[in-house]
Amino acid sequence: MATEYERKRLENIRRNDEMMAALNVRAKASLLTAATKRPRDESKSYKKKKEKPETPIVMRKSLRTRGLDPDSVGLPNWFADYHKRIPPLNSSAPLQKSSARLLAPLPFDKAYDGEGSYHKFVESMCGTASTVVNVKDDCSSTRRRSPRLSNKDGNDDSPVVSSGNDYLKKEVVKSGKTEFDREPLSLESNNVARVVPGRIFVVKFMPCENVKLVAAGDKLGNVGFWNLDCDRDEEDDDNGIYLFHPHTSPVSSLVFQQNSLSKVISSSYDGLIRLMDAEKSVFDLVYSCDKAIFSLSQRPNDEQSLYFGEGYGMLNVWDLRAGKSSSNWDLHEHRINSIDFNPQNPHVMATSSTDGTACLWDLRSMGATTPKTLQTVNHSRAVHSAYFSPTGLSLATTSVDNYIGLLSGANFEDLSMISHDNNTNRWISTFRGVWGWDDSSIFVANRSSKGIDVISTKQKRTVKELHDPLMRAIPCRIHCHPLNVGVIAGSTAGGQVYVWTPK
User: Fold this and answer.
1) Which range in 54-58, 234-238, 264-268 is most confidently predicted, on average pLDDT?
2) Helix or strand (DSSP H, E) at 480
3) Do 472 and 450 contact (CB within 8 A), yes or no?
4) What is the C-alpha to C-alpha distance for residues 475 and 468, in angstroms, rounded to an integer?
5) Among residues 283, 331, 391, 396, which one has the fewest Cβ atoms lying within 10 Å of its Cβ?
6) Region annotation Disordered: residue ranges (predicted)?
7) 37 in any annotated domain
């Protein structure tokens, strides 16, 4: 027997059916469904896809997990230096659009990109050059005359100038501990400044004791000068920093002329070597080629010759007086990253290369054929520096294989490898270990702490670290003042320069 609820449900169904029949809803719904259906094309034959034959599944495993040696040497050694290899400057290169300007003397008015005026910089450079004290060598002796230290009594204000090349470190003390050992170093806020806008490739002190001036070259072709003795209380726009743009590619080297500090030689990846003459207010063009110039140096007491690494492995010797090349040799299989001369025996030259070697050469026996090395230091990866110690008795090499090589002995036959983290990426400059003011210490950047490690050549390990909260970036390229003990400059990828001084 149907319940009351069931009777109401059936009555509602009947009423709804009558309403839908009166509105002809079902017929219209059928027409809409038929219109939306796509007619099937009977002429088409739908073939069943062929089933692929079953193949065994191969699991990929690396050679390392299988216990085998890798079949590749990895990325090329030059990859970490910059993300693009420098192409030859041929006629189709965009750089040639401004070749008329580049291949000619460049006046300061066109090269200056700094704030304010460069006239105070010219006055300072010319004033220093006019009071240069040349240090003569005794031809009968191989020992070099030591420079005078600062006159604390103030009786002599004339600058004391180094007459050697960029890395010629003269003996500032004959025995005992140096000022660096006795007194701690500090970093003051007024000794921190952004000198150039781009990543710094080279930083150098002017080799003058009484004038504290730093020069820096960056990735964008800029050369900046920072006079730390400038009075910052004066209302000047330059603030002691003077920025020039003499090149169009990274600046690889800066060399102060030995007997005229108002002249600075710069080399660049754009294939140009320029001579900045502050007295003439111009960047003269010294040399041009269609290859990148990766390094440049001068022999002690020979300011008329330039030694530079051109292209990939060639060493060129340029005579400034004659205006032509006097010699050239293919010394390495890849680019030459640094060139240095022994301060006690300037005939002995050291080169480092991306081919993984650092070599010693005797210029007296180079000849016209392929020269032979005196000694060769082999690293597993690129070597970015090879510098002689202040006495010339040791050689320090820095490689991205995380070792600093130390070559010593009467004939440089003793080799030690000091472990140090030298890994960098393409955004920061590669590390280069430089000597201090004697043969006891090597200074190199610390990647993790953003400081400077002091490596003892006797203990063959890091014994001290220069670190300060003001130093907020890695000081990749370092230079120790050749005459002022304890004055160190560290430069960064952001164009900043930090100058440490004794407290």
Assistant:
1) 264-268
2) strand 477-480
3) yes
4) 12
5) 391
6) 34-54, 137-164
7) no
Joined tokens for residue 288: 């041009």
- Answer whether residue 229 is part of any domain: yes
Domain for residue 260, yes or no? Answer: yes
Q: Output the pTM of the full model.
A: 0.73
Q: How far is it, in rounded angstroms, from Cα 245 to Cα 209?
A: 27
d(CA 302, CA 445): 31
Cβ–Cβ < 8 Å for 343, 169 = yes
The domain spanning residue 472 has which CATH number? 2.130.10.10
Give which of 148, 142, 133, 144 is closest to 485, Cα–Cα: 148
Q: Is residue 431 a contact partner of residue 491, using CB atoms and an 8 Å limit?
A: no
Determine contact, residues 267/310, Cβ cutoff 8 Å: no
In single-letter form, the type of residue at position 303 comes to: E
Residues 6+ apart with CB under 8 A from 281: 107, 108, 109, 118, 122
Structure-block tokens of residue 218: 């960056």
Query: With the CA atoms of 244, 246, 247 and 252 taken in that order, what torsion angle do they form, in degrees rounded to the nearest 10?
Result: -70
Contact (CB, 8 A) for 219 and 199 = yes
CA-based diameter of the chain, in Å?
138
Task: Please count the CA atoms within 13 angstroms of the CA of 403 that sit on its side-chain side.
Answer: 18
pLDDT at 410 over 70: yes
Domains: count for the chain: 1
Q: How many CB atoms lie within 10 A of CB 489?
A: 26
The tokens of 300 are what? 């002690």
Position 63 scores a pLDDT of 56
pLDDT of residue 373: 93
The identity of residue 305, as a single letter, is S
Q: Report yes or no on 70 lying in a domain.
A: no
Q: Is 148 helix (H, G, I), strand (E, B) or coil?
A: coil
For residues 14-33, give the mean pLDDT.
80
* pLDDT on residue 382: 96
Contacting residues for 219 by C-beta, under 8 A, at least 6 apart: 82, 198, 199, 200, 201, 250
* Confidence tier at 148 by pLDDT (50, 70, 90): very low
